[in-house]
């Protein structure tokens, strides 16, 4: 237990070495201090108890707009964007979000910069400057953010549910804000948005409505002294938390069936009930209990039956959109095309399952089992990044007593039949709201939701109708789940005698290569297993790639009802197709991991095609491919860039084209051929011994490669996978233009890529240092000042060990050709800043990057992802971090300038540039008008002719023999 300043014990995980303290400042600000002597990042999160529910009428989005505005400047630090600049330059990232009843601001930063970062942060809440000039620019940024969301089904359906509620309740409101709500409409009424903004801040940003989490390396006493010094100045106006009593739905909004037209392909049912918020009984966990059962996927469950009937591919059940006053229990079902024709049967089966729960009574053994799983999950939770941890706590502090600030509702422990029964009774036909989404409703609706333009219609659904649906539904054997065999009982740590710093090559044969990394950092009873099946036949054509995808999804599908119990118990498995085959990942508690892995291996080895499941998986995969055209334009640009650069990649349009013609018998013939030649690249890490690792892989080899009629033969040396990347020509500025795939999307996007070098420690750190220094100025100039678009980023890019830099900007304001010119103008302007950088600034940036690089992995998954990346790319530089830090310590400022002049500067002799321009609806006419019939220098018309015309970088991968034991 960690003791509060007021002697309240804060429940913390058994394995947690951090110290916690609650304090309340004189201005009534409640604070949780967290001391973690092992951390290499500090973080803070401030949750302000006012959100979009408090937006004044006629100023929708004001709370969200204020969240944006506070980042600009303060009286103490008046230089615009200097807060974000400081955080970015010292290894951190700032962010914020606006919820219905709160607004959360947060950042992380390197430990030696925390005090100044905190001082800059606190100015948000003391004396921010919200200049008139910044006001207008940031309204445009909010509008750009809203336009990004307009064609997102998640945003559209969420707003539709809000729209169909009482207009007098704030749940009904539109919360994001737009140019229309923050500029046009207020202006027409003579309302000054900036004055309203200042008034809103004065009224609502009061210390007694705030909750702060501060996460630091220092002792609790030192953190407390720092917090008292900086946060006492926040004004306390004595304002009460805004309250929104009453339910958002009256009787006219219940017992309804809403048909809605989505943007994407696919059919979905959302069945929603207003319920008593679980927060009032979080230790009894009624929603967790009911969500566990209604959302179960084991034999006899609702999903199992729907899947067996071929009607559903996914089901979720649980509490959503809750506040202290109201809440909704939601069941979301992804329907197949056949399921779309059986909506009434599906809703009938759901109510039959709820009836089963009523008849069975609330089961103590199920609650106890769930409680045990939750308790293990809490006490053995993985460490996460300080910023994520701080946000997760701060955003819920107001809802829970201090002793439960860490555990919150994650560990139901009080079995109370009555409390669960109350919520179960609320899942009744007379309170239901059914939202049914399908493209098949196009032209059949008579209403339009005003903010997103979603077409919908409403009809009443009576209790007697639902009872009839129940009676007509198939008579299937619905029953409660069995007891869970995957719950771990052995959570002991293995005695790792060898303190292995990097993965070791445990064994190598013509069948496999096995990398082993025992846990020496996390002291956690968990393991990570990755087996990559390198199968040359899996990716030699678009058809092969698609059939491999179906194969991987089918294996997942076949295992689901058995392996779902493992998932509940904290043991997860993934099977996914890759560029060269497929990979199996099993991660979680190590105690029962071998049982699950053996089941997965057995299912692959004995694979057979079930035609009914094949059809459903194929239908789902077809929808996924069709929906790629609804990706954000910047995501489309990233796909084209990969297609232009990677030697072995098929366009998804080609894969979609072949998909309709693929039949079950094609897969039946293909699967044995795909597996006939294979090489297994294996990585095993965590709380697992060397002998266990060897035994595990020996078993896998025995299954696939041994016996009188083996499933697999080893690869020939020529068959080992390579991953090669196109080498752009020096001094060339290539560009590829493409119309956006969704004609309704107004946004255009630019990806401006600068290819620099093949993996090399010194060149790597020069690139990383440049990216660190240029990241925030890019955002400030192109987003804050020029207002080109809400999505404006500068990222490093690594294609199989080939490193570069990419500017990504999505915009409704300007077309991609213009944005490309602005990126080049920025680089010219930044050149001056780079040359003017002082030696102290250079050193500060180098030290910030070193601190970032030396940041420890937080958990096994994070560590394994890094090492697996080295194995997958073939670079195998497991000591990369130490080597790059050593290179950084040698780097001089003139060397960085030389690097910029050679590779990045506009017009640099060695510069290799590729611009991918995706043209949206807003800029299509301009694009077509200026499009030249004559090929311009560097213009790419055909991706594949372009790739064939250029040389390739050498591959780091390409054979099992390139590492010696």
Please tell me about this protein's structure.
It is a single chain. This protein is α+β, with helices and mostly antiparallel strands. Helices cover 40% and strands 19% of the residues. The protein has a seven-stranded mixed beta sheet. The longest helix has 27 residues, at 542-568. The protein is globular, with a radius of gyration of 29 Å. The two termini are 48 Å apart. Mean pLDDT is 96; it is low at 960-965.
Main sheet, how many strands, which sense, barrel? 7 strands, mixed
What is the residue-averaged pLDDT? 96
E-strand count = 28
Helix content: 40-55%
**Rg over CA atoms:** 29 Å
Tell me the strand percentage band: 15-25%
Stretches where pLDDT is under 50 for at least 5 consecutive residues are 960-965
Query: What gross morphology would you assign?
Result: globular
First-last Cα distance: 48 Å
Per DSSP, the total helix count is: 31
Strand order within the widest beta sheet: 13-14-12-15-11-17-16
**Structural class of the secondary structure composition?**
alpha+beta
């Amino acid at each position: 237990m960690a003791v509060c300043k007021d002697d309240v014990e804060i429940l913390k995980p058994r394995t947690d070495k951090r110290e916690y303290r609650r304090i309340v400042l004189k201005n009534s600000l409640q604070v949780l201090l967290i001391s973690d002597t092992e951390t290499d990042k500090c973080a803070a999160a401030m949750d302000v108890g006012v959100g979009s529910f408090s937006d004044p009428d006629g100023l929708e989005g004001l709370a969200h707009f204020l969240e944006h505005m506070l980042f600009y400047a303060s009286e103490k630090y008046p230089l615009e964007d200097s807060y974000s600049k400081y955080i970015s330059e010292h290894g951190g990232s700032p962010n914020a979000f606006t919820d219905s009843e709160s607004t959360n601001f947060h950042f992380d930063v390197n430990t030696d910069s925390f005090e100044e970062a905190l001082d800059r942060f606190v100015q948000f809440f003391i004396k921010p400057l919200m200049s008139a000039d910044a006001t207008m620019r940031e309204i445009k940024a909010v509008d750009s953010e809203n336009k990004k969301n307009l064609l997102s089904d998640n945003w559209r359906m969420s707003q539709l549910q809000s729209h169909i509620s009482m207009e007098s309740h704030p749940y009904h409101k539109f919360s994001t804000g737009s140019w229309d709500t923050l500029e046009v409409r207020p202006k027409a009424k003579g309302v000054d948005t900036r004055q309203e903004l200042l008034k809103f801040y004065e009224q609502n940003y009061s210390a007694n409505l705030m909750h702060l989490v501060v996460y630091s390396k220092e002792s609790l006493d030192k953190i407390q002294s720092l917090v008292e010094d900086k946060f006492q100045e926040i004004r306390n106006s004595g304002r009460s938390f805004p309250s929104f009593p009453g339910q958002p739905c009256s009787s006219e909004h219940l017992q309804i069936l809403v048909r809605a037209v989505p943007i994407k392909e696919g059919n979905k049912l959302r069945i929603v009930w207003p319920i008593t918020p679980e927060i009032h009984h979080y230790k009894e966990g009624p929603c967790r209990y009911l969500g566990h059962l209604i959302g179960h996927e084991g034999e006899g469950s609702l999903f199992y039956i729907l899947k067996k009937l071929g009607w559903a591919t996914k089901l979720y059940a649980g509490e959503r959109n809750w506040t202290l006053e109201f809440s909704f229990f939601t069941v979301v079902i992804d329907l197949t095309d056949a399921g779309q024709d059986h909506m009434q049967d599906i809703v009938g089966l759901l109510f039959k399952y709820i009836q089963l729960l009523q008849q069975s009574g609330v089961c103590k053994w199920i609650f106890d089992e769930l409680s045990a799983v939750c308790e293990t999950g809490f006490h053995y939770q993985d460490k996460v990044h300080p910023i994520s941890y701080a946000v997760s706590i701060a955003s819920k502090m107001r809802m829970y007593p201090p002793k439960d600030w860490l555990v919150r509702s994650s560990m139901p422990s009080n079995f109370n039949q009555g409390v669960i029964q109350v919520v179960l009774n609320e899942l009744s036909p007379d309170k239901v709201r059914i939202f049914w989404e399908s493209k098949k409703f196009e032209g059949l609706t008579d209403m339009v939701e005003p903010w997103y333009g979603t077409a919908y219609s409403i009809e009443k659904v009576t209790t007697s109708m639902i009872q009839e649906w129940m009676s007509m539904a198939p008579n299937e054997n619905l029953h409660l789940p069995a007891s869970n065999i995957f719950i771990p009982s052995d959570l002991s740590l293995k005695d790792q005698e060898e303190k292995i710093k990097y993965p070791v090559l445990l064994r190598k044969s013509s069948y496999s290569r096995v990398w082993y990394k025992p846990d020496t950092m996390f002291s956690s009873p968990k393991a990570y297993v990755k087996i990559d099946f390198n199968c040359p036949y899996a990716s030699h054509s678009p058809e092969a790639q698609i059939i491999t995808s179906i194969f991987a999804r089918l294996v997942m599908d076949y295992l689901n009802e058995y392996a779902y119990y493992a998932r509940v118990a904290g043991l997860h498995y993934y099977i996914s197709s890759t560029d060269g085959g497929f990979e199996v990942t099993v991660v979680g508690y190590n105690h029962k991991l071998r049982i699950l892995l053996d089941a997965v291996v057995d299912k692959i080895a004995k694979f057979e095609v079930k035609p009914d499941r094949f059809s459903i998986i194929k239908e789902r995969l077809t929808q996924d491919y069709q929906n790629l055209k609804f990706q954000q334009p910047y995501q489309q640009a990233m796909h084209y860039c990969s297609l232009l650069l990677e030697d072995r990649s098929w366009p998804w349009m080609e894969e979609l084209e072949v998909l309709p013609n693929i039949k079950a018998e094609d897969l039946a013939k293909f699967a044995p051929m795909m597996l006939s030649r294979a090489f297994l690249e294996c990585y095993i890490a965590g709380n697992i011994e060397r002998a266990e690792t060897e035994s595990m892989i020996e078993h896998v080899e025995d299954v696939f490669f041994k016996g009188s009629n083996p499933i697999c033969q080893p690869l020939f040396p020529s068959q080992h996978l390579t991953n090669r990347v196109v080498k752009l020509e020096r001094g060339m500025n290539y560009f590829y233009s493409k119309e956006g795939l969704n004609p309704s999307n107004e946004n255009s996007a630019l990806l401006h890529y600068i290819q620099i070098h093949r993996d090399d420690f010194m060149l790597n750190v020069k690139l990383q240092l440049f990216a660190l220094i240029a990241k925030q100025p890019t955002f400030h100039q192109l987003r804050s000042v020029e207002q080109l678009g809400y999505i404006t980023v500068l990222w490093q890019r690594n294609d199989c060990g080939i490193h570069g830099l990419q500017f990504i900007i999505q915009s409704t304001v300007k077309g991609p050709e213009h944005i490309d010119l602005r990126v080049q103008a920025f680089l010219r302007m930044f050149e001056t800043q780079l040359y003017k950088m002082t030696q102290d600034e250079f050193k500060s940036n180098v030290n910030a990057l070193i601190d970032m690089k030396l940041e420890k992995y937080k958990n096994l998954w994070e560590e394994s992802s890094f090492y697996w990346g080295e194995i997958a790319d073939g670079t195998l530089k497991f000591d990369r971090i130490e080597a790059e830090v050593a290179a950084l310590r040698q780097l001089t400022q003139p060397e960085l300038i030389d690097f910029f002049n050679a590779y990045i500067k506009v017009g640099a002799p060695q510069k290799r540039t590729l611009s991918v321009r995706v043209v949206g609806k807003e800029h299509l006419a301009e694009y077509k008008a200026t499009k030249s019939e004559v090929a311009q220098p560097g213009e790419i018309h055909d991706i594949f002719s372009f790739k064939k015309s250029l040389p390739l970088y050498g591959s780091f991968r390409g054979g099992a023999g390139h590492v010696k034991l």
